[in-house]
């Protein structure tokens, strides 16, 4: 396939090193035959569809419709799409019946309008991927107060978008929801947004499930992690989809598409196509499944940006292992120490790297595995699992942006099908985060002092908590029982008088030396010297380890959790810890693998789920640490007396095996 982009179709914006940006062709899609222009039309349409037994869905922050496609693949019909990007709204309006609208969901009016429409139209399934912005400390404090009090409406007129989503759930009470976001929403230190989201949904009596999925496990030919939250109004049990039998490679996905040169355009502009032969693999047949007989030998949108001559030279010398720094120096236009992955030739035998919206501006990270050019719009769409008949309104740059922002439809469909199964099974969930957090908090509060393995967890004195961590951590209980009363009963340092503990430290170091614990004695002396010299480094909300060097990262996080300094902080800053055996407890309790990839994703989510964000969360967190040491030990766990015993997955499995 040959051809070139006309000069009138490209621009470099005056930068002689820039990649030419694609101006055309501009695709203008007609609206769906069952498009509704007014809310009255939508209500009438929904009445007709419900009369046939159809279950209706809405997709907020819908983009082009990746989740919408997945929902329809599972048998739901999406009749309402809402987004704030014009080209995506027009794409959605072409492919889906009902209404696709450009509404700003950060406003009160839009929230009420959407919720009312869902109730009036009988929409039972709500999907969406609201973007989540980081919060200031003051913002977290205010939101946490609202969450604990069971209130969901902030006073300001413009909402954070994830809170808009929850307010719509509160007002419309859909039967089930599916929410998508980047994993960073859940995996920050405090996991604040994620814990708030779960707590608020459970306050509304939804059963909630969360998982960081790798989309390639669901038949998507790319590395792409997404946080998925699924919830059911009737408190149902839900099971995640099984992994797809085989990983779909990049070449499996795009190998049947015809060769094109960079910048090629078909005759006919936006309505033109490239000649297509036939699908060769299961994935290709899946991606072509909706193509009409008339279009069986056509492929649309198989276009990409033009290729500079020096880029062509670079592309041709690269393979999938070539780094930017490996290129000849005279061909580099960027600093190799900063842009080591600036150019990336994709590996045809592996899945693609993540397609993002940035591909609309820069395709260097997505060089075709065999041809000296970047990916076409259709190739990017295939990697995201959009079917070949799915087209995107606007110019190619808008198409790339819509594709990069989307949830892969195949992954969304796999999850949506399991939602259908959960509703049909109608089995109630066994436990909620709020119930688990409350039971852990109650156990911690009632635990007798002579049973405590880590007694410093119960102090609210920051200095004593620190000394307990430094001196007593990983020490035999017999020694802990001797030393903790000394620490607890002697004068402690304060922010105003950091040397008040001089006598305590002297006595403790002598005791530690006397029992052969010279290293602990040395560490205690160093800690006391550093906190006396720079008290602000210890008494601030988070310990400044650049000046309090004797305190390791894990110890500092523990001290901040046990006793945050009241003058500087509050419990909204508490970290979510997966150390001190906590991850072991949650992994056993919820039957989660302890593989490295799960420790950083599902493991952290499991910990956050058990803590919640209610009034019991801090004590529940401390309880998990005590449970890990007292009951859920690495070897020979002592299950009797554990507050989690009644609903522990591991214990249930062991009992079944015994039975």
TrEMBL record:
GO terms for biological process: DNA repair; DNA restriction-modification system; methylation; negative regulation of gene expression via chromosomal CpG island methylation. Its EC number is 2.1.1.37. Keywords: Methyltransferase, Restriction system, S-adenosyl-L-methionine, Transferase. It catalyses: a 2'-deoxycytidine in DNA + S-adenosyl-L-methionine = a 5-methyl-2'-deoxycytidine in DNA + S-adenosyl-L-homocysteine + H(+). It is an enzyme of class 2 (transferase). InterPro entries: C5-Methyltransferase, C5_DNA_meth_AS, C5_MeTfrase, DNA_glycosylase, HhH_base_excis_C, SAM-dependent_MTases_sf. Pfam families: DNA_methylase. GO terms for molecular function: DNA (cytosine-5-)-methyltransferase activity; DNA binding. Coiled coil: none annotated. SUPFAM superfamilies: DNA-glycosylase, S-adenosyl-L-methionine-dependent methyltransferases. The active site is at 132. NCBIfam families: dcm. Belongs to the class I-like SAM-binding methyltransferase superfamily. C5-methyltransferase family. This is Cytosine-specific methyltransferase.
């Amino acid at each position: 396939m040959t051809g070139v982009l006309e000069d009138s179709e490209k621009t470099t914006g005056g930068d002689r090193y820039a990649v030419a940006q694609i101006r055309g062709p501009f695709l203008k899609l007609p609206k769906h035959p069952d498009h509704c222009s007014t809310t009255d039309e939508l209500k009438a349409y929904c009445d007709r569809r419900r009369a046939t037994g159809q279950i209706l869905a809405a997709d907020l922050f819908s983009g082009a419709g990746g989740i919408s496609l997945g929902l329809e693949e599972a048998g739901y019909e999406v009749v309402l799409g809402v987004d704030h990007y014009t080209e995506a709204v027009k794409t959605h309006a072409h492919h889906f019946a009902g209404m696709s609208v450009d509404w700003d969901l950060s406003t009160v009016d839009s929230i009420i309008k959407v919720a009312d429409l869902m109730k009036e139209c009988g929409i039972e399934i709500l999907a969406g991927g609201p973007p989540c912005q980081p919060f200031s400390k003051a913002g977290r404090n205010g939101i946490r107060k609202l969450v604990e009090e069971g209130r969901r409406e902030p006073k300001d007129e413009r909402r954070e978008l994830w809170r808009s989503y929850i307010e719509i759930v509160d007002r419309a009470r859909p039967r089930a929801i599916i929410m998508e976001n980047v994993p960073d929403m859940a995996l920050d230190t405090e996991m604040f947004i994620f814990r708030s989201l779960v707590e608020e949904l459970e306050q509304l009596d939804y059963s909630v499930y969360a998982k960081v999925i790798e989309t390639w496990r669901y038949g998507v030919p790319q590395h792409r992690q997404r946080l998925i939250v699924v919830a059911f109004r009737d408190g149902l049990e839900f099971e995640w989809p099984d992994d797809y039998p085989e990983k779909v490679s990049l070449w499996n996905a795009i190998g049947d598409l015809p060769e094109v040169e960079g910048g090629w355009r078909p005759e006919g502009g936006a309505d033109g196509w490239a000649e297509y032969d036939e699908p060769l693999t299961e994935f290709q047949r899946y991606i072509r499944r909706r193509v009409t007989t008339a279009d069986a030998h056509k492929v649309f949108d198989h276009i990409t940006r033009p290729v500079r001559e020096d880029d062509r030279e670079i592309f041709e010398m690269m393979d999938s292992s070539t780094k930017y720094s490996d290129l000849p120096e005279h061909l580099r236009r960027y600093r190799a120490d900063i842009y080591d992955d600036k150019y990336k030739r994709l590996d045809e035998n592996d899945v693609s790297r993540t397609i993002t919206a940035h591909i609309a501006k820069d395709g260097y990270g997505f060089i075709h595995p065999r041809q000296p050019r970047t990916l076409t719009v259709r190739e990017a769409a295939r990697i995201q699992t959009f079917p070949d008949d799915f087209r995107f309104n606007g110019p190619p740059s808008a198409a790339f942006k819509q594709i990069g922002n989307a949830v892969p439809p195949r992954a969304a469909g796999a999850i949506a099908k399991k939602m259908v199964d959960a509703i049909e099974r109608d089995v109630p969930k066994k436990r909620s985060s709020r119930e688990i957090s409350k039971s852990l908090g109650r156990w911690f509060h009632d635990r007798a002092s002579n049973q405590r393995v880590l007694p410093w967890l119960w102090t609210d004195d920051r200095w004593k908590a620190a000394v307990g961590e430094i001196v007593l951590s990983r020490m035999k209980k017999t020694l802990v029982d001797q030393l903790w009363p000394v620490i607890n009963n002697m004068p402690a340092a304060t922010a105003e008088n950091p040397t008040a503990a001089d006598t305590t430290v002297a006595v403790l170091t002598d005791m530690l030396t006397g029992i052969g614990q010279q290293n602990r004695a040395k560490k205690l002396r160093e800690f006391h010297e550093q906190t006396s010299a720079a008290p602000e480094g210890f008494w601030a909300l988070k310990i400044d380890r650049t000046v309090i060097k004797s305190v390791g990262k894990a110890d500092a996080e523990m001290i901040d959790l046990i006793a945050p300094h009241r003058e500087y902080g509050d419990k909204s800053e508490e970290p979510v810890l997966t150390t001190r055996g906590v991850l072991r407890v949650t992994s056993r309790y919820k039957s989660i693998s302890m593989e490295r990839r799960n420790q950083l994703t599902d493991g952290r989510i499991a910990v956050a789920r058990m803590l919640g964000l209610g009034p019991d969360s801090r004590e529940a967190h401390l309880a998990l640490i005590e449970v890990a040491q007292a009951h859920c030990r690495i070897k020979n766990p002592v299950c009797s007396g554990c507050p989690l015993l009644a609903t522990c997955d591991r214990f249930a499995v062991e009992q079944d095996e015994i039975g």
